[in-house]
Design goal:
Blueprint lengths: L2 H11 L2 H10 L5 H7 L7 H25 L4 H19 L3 H4 L3 H32 L19
Helix pairs in contact: 1-4, 1-7, 2-7, 3-4, 4-7, 5-7
Length: about 150
């Protein structure tokens, strides 16, 4: 799956934990979306959607680049990365509207995002590297390629 597909999948499902939490507790299901809008000046749904699109696209690119570097990280590595992103997004960057949200569902949103990106990116990287490595007569490239090669003389 390409980067846009990975981003779309992760961005779509990453809000499920906080949405379910809001629905179960009788809260506002769009509160997190509005709060994200504060990143763009005002806590509104349109700005929140725009902020979510931009932020999730940026983190998708970062995590996909990391997946190319550290193959085998997969879902678990992505989830750990999502947790690290949550600490940065929720604790370091201090936006009052975001800090007012319930913490656990927000952390879970980030973990789900990272797990989806990690899982889909690892599959994409692994699939591509197998195709490249399987071609005869061509030099192996990609994340699993050796750093050096020995040529028989």
């Amino acid at each position: 799956m390409g980067p846009i597909g990975v981003w779309a999948a992760a961005a779509t499902v990453s809000g499920v934990p906080s949405t379910v939490h809001a629905l179960v507790t009788g809260g506002d299901a769009l509160a997190a979306t509005r709060a994200a809008g504060a990143l763009l000046g005002a806590p509104t749904v349109p700005r929140g959607v725009a902020a979510h699109v931009a932020v999730s696209a940026g983190w998708t690119l970062v995590l996909r680049a990391a997946a190319r570097r550290w193959t085998g990280s997969g879902v678990v590595g992505g989830a750990v990365a999502g947790l690290a992103i949550a600490v940065l997004d929720l604790e370091v960057v201090r936006v009052p509207a975001i800090r007012a949200l319930p913490r656990l569902p927000q952390y879970l949103d980030h973990v789900v995002f990272g797990a989806v990106v990690g899982g889909l990116s690892t599959r994409a990287v692994t699939g591509r590297s197998r195709r490249v490595a399987g071609r005869r007569g061509r030099r192996r490239t990609g994340p699993n390629a050796p750093l050096w090669t020995f040529h028989r003389g």
